[in-house]
Each structure stands twice: as structure tokens, then as C-alpha cells.
Design a protein that fits this description.
It is built from 2 helices and 35 strands. By secondary structure, it is mainly β.
Length: 491
């Protein structure tokens, strides 16, 4: 989760989740207060004041639900009633019960369905009488669930490769009768390393690694690292790309592709059927949404400065998704090759891992903030709200210093993107002299926005705020019962 994508650790994720985070770097800059925060997972009091959220003239914000635990999504039934998704997991290795909640007129919530210990639930969408939920699957593998408003659940897809850093995300419903969803990568940049032990999954699944969508040929570059799977502090191992931890690669080695795979967008018929590949080469495609013209778009959480193959300065991306396209992971960022000084770190620039690339990646629709964790989003469809055809993207916010250095807080807001020009503008951001989560800057507005969705009429934008999650020396410290659902509308 947003990513913490929960979600992308770079901001993602819902880790995502967000959201997205561990493994610090010598000389990292720290966000103000990130090492002074509480180190427990107990509920914390959160102040709320919509007046602390800065919006363009003519708009207002209001908090319509609060006290949520790790919320990640919102959708509306046929009557326009809002339903809220709680993830059931947060980076920091914290599990709770993932839940689908109905928002009552009095602002209280009623549980519709509660899942098991396989979060994070990273997103949902409503279509023809049922909700479709992406189950991140950090323990048992990802799934796409179908849940009715009466609380009846069935599994549309299971056994998705989501046991690593990033999870099963989305979903979105196409006019072609398919459910589209994203599947994040197992690692930061293609190589399993000690940072994945910090995430928790390497010790649980020491043989887990990236799975290509098509056959790939490796350069044979290997990476030496400490071995967190033994107690010997001097123990070293060598690991190659797309291979289990401690397994070296050789030049010209071919890794066979398969489906499902990591780092991809896939789809499945609404009524079930075979899984199909839509696009590949995506590090963590977290948010998915269809433009009013029918084009599918996705947000991609970009590389962090961590692990055996760190990258510096990789911005999150908004892509227009063209079926059959390869978007560059693990050797490109935002369409640009990574083996240049633009992404150089103290370990030098990231060398190519693949001997051959399926194609030259396209140019993105927009490049977003480095470590912003740009996650769930929606397109404006109504002139009454304004900015028709533009994307409104929730930015979970950075998870520095674990993802790399930042000179100040990045994200923690909702931005508006013109997909024709690539222009990015703030839409909802905390008031104050500095940016950051409201609890850190002494305000009572936004903490970590993770999803944004318009109501069925397109008249109001609902923003899902994951809640308080300060970064501590031990890593993410998510706070239960601090999540909020905001509603933004015209005055």
C-alpha cells in the first residue's frame, strides 16, 4: 500500500498502502519529525478541520467519515451510496481485518464484508450489482474478489504473484466486459536484496523473485549483499536479476516468461475466464482508470533509492496504457534509460539488466513527484465540477528516509493533471508555510491521500485519506482509526 502503496514505498503504494521503505542510506536527508514520532501502532487522536485544506476558489472540502483503519478505496452502488474499503494491512507488517463498509447518511459505517489475513485490499469498483476488489495478497497471493452489497463474496482470480514489495492493485471495469488490474513487482528494481527482508517477505518466501511476462535474456550482472537469512553478520551472497535471493545469473541466461507475471496490467472477463496480459514493464501500476474517451490510464510508483540496485531521482508516472506495450521495467524510468548519470547513486548508475529490450518504451502522459507515491485517481466527467477529462490523483506522500533522500516532504495532496499537455497542478493541499502531512505541520487537514474518485454524477470528488503514518527508526508506524473520507464539491 500506495507503493506505503501500502503502496509504493517511494512516495509506493497501499503501499499503496499504500499503500509503499526500509534500508536507510548514509547521508539521507530526513523529513522533519520523521524520527521523533511515536513507535506504537495504537490508535491516535487526529484533529480535523476542512478549513486547513487549500482548494481553488469555488470549491469546498468536508470530512464525511472518520475513524477508519487504513482505508484505501471508495466506490458507489447503483443508488449512489458510498462504500469504503479498509486495507487490512499496512507497511510496517501490521495486519487488521480488511473490510468493505457502507457509509450511512449519519456518517457512521456498516460492515458489509470482512476478509481474512491476506491484505492489503488496495482498491474497488462497482459494476452491475457488485463490487470488484483487488486483494493485495501479501501472505497468500493476490486475488480479485466480487462482493455483492448483501455481503456475498466470490473469487474471480487467485494465485497472483503479490508476495513481495508490491501488490495486486486496481481494479477498473472496461466497456469490453473485462476487469483490468495491476500487479506490482516483487522488488524495487529487479533484484532481491536485504531490503526485502526489511519488508518482511524475504524471510517468509526466500525463493520468491520477479516473474517476467515474456522470455527475457539477462546481461548477467550480479549483486553482492549481506545475507539477512543467517545470523552470521559477515555472510555475503550474490544475486542476479529475476532470480531467488542468493542465486547468481550468467550472461545470456534466458528466464522464461509466464502468466500471471509481476510488473504488469492484466485482465479477466467479468464472469470469469482465462487471464490475459494487457501491458508489461511496469514497476507498480497502482491506480487504474478509464478516461471519458475510453483510454485506460495507470499511475506507476517509480524506483526507490534502496536495495542492491538503487536509483536516484525517478519520478512517479501517469501512463496511457496501450495493449501490448512494454513500459521499461527494470531498465527504464518514465521512458528514459536508467544507465545514465540522471539516476546515479553512490553505487553508480543502474546498469541494464536485460540484454535485449522488447521495445523502446513510450513517453508518459505526465511525470509526477519523486517519491510522491501517486496512487488512486479518477477523471472529471462533469462540467459542473470542472476540468473535464483531467486526472485527479491522490498522492500518498513520501516515506523518506527509507526510500531515499528528499529535501522536503513530497506528496500528501491531490494533484490535477492535463493528460494532453502533461501539466501537473496542485488541487487539494494542506495550508501552511511548508508541505507535509497535517499532523506533522501542525494542521488538521490531509494526512496521506491514497485514492480519489468522483461520484456517479461527477459532481463531487471523494478523497480517501489513509490516515496518520509517521516514519520512525523502525520504519512505518501506521495509526489505526485515523483514516478519513473527504468530499470536495463546488460551492
Amino acid at each position: 500500500m500506495p507503493t506505503p502503496t501500502l503502496f509504493h514505498r517511494s512516495a509506493t503504494g497501499l503501499a499503496a498502502l499504500a499503500l509503499v521503505l526500509t534500508g536507510s542510506l548514509t547521508g539521507c536527508y530526513k523529513l522533519r519529525g520523521h524520527y521523533g514520532g511515536p513507535k506504537t501502532y495504537e490508535p491516535a487522536t487526529r484533529r480535523l478541520d476542512a478549513a486547513d485544506v487549500a482548494l481553488p476558489a469555488g470549491y469546498k472540502a468536508e470530512a464525511i467519515a472518520q475513524g477508519l483503519t487504513y482505508p484505501t478505496g471508495v466506490a458507489f452502488d447503483a443508488q449512489g451510496t458510498p462504500y469504503i474499503l479498509e486495507a487490512g494491512y499496512s507497511y510496517g507488517e501490521v495486519w487488521t481485518a480488511p473490510r468493505l463498509l457502507r457509509l450511512e447518511p449519519n456518517g457512521e459505517t456498516k460492515e458489509v464484508y470482512s476478509g481474512g489475513k491476506n491484505g492489503p485490499w488496495t482498491g474497488l469498483v462497482f459494476h452491475e450489482g457488485a463490487f470488484y476488489v483487488s486483494e493485495g495478497g501479501s501472505l497468500e497471493g493476490g486475488r480479485i474478489l466480487r462482493i455483492t452489497p448483501a455481503g456475498q463474496m466470490s473469487v474471480l482470480v487467485d494465485k497472483l504473484p503479490s508476495l513481495g514489495d508490491h501488490h495486486t492493485n486496481g481494479p477498473a471495469i472496461g466497456s469490453d466486459g473485462y476487469v483490468y488490474f495491476g500487479q506490482g513487482t516483487a522488488t524495487n528494481s529487479g533484484v532481491v536484496g536485504p531490503d526485502n527482508a526489511d519488508f518482511g517477505w524475504l524471510t517468509r518466501n526466500p525463493k520468491y523473485h520477479e516473474i517476467p511476462c515474456q522470455d527475457i535474456t539477462l546481461v548477467g550482472q550480479n549483486f553482492e549483499s549481506d545475507n539477512p537469512l543467517t545470523e552470521d553478520k559477515k555472510d555475503k551472497v550474490t544475486t542476479g536479476a529475476y532470480l531467488p535471493f542468493g542465486t547468481p545469473s550468467t550472461a545470456g541466461q534466458v528466464i522464461k516468461g509466464q502468466l500471471p507475471c509481476t510488473g504488469a496490467i492484466m485482465r479477466v472477463p467479468l464472469r470469469g475466464g482465462p487471464l490475459e496480459l494487457v501491458a508489461s514493464g511496469l514497476r507498480n501500476p497502482f491506480g487504474l482508470a478509464f478516461h471519458p474517451n475510453g483510454t485506460l490510464y495507470t499511475t506507476e510508483n517509480a524506483y526507490d533509492t534502496r536495495g542492491s540496485r538503487p536509483a536516484y531521482g525517478a519520478g512517479d508516472v501517469l501512463w496511457a496504457v496501450k495493449p501490448g506495450t512494454w513500459y521499461g521495467f527494470p531498465d527504464f524510468s518514465a521512458g528514459q534509460p536508467m544507465n545514465t548519470s540522471d539516476y546515479e547513486t553512490p553505487k553508480n548508475d543502474p546498469k541494464f539488466l536485460l540484454a535485449k529490450h522488447p521495445q523502446t518504451p513510450p513517453k508518459p502522459a505526465a511525470i509526477l513527484g519523486v517519491h510522491s507515491s501517486s496512487n488512486g485517481f479518477d477523471f472529471s466527467r462533469s462540467a459542473s465540477f470542472g476540468h473535464v477529462g483531467e486526472a485527479f490523483i491522490a498522492q500518498f506522500g513520501d516515506m523518506a528516509p527509507n526510500v531515499g533522500r528528499v529535501y522536503g516532504p513530497v506528496g500528501f495532496k491531490v494533484v490535477r493533471v492535463n493528460v494532453q499537455t502533461g501539466a501537473v497542478e496542485d488541487f487539494a493541499v494542506n495550508k501552511g508555510r511548508t508541505n507535509g502531512p497535517s499532523s506533522e505541520i501542525g494542521r488538521a487537514g490531509l494526512e496521506r491521500p491514497v485514492a480519489a474518485r468522483f461520484d456517479p454524477k461527477g459532481e463531487a470528488l471523494y478523497v480517501v485519506d489513509f490516515g496518520m503514518m509517521p516514519m520512525t527508526e523502525q520504519g512505518p508506524s501506521p495509526r489505526k482509526q485515523t483514516g478519513v473520507l473527504w468530499k470536495i464539491s463546488k460551492i
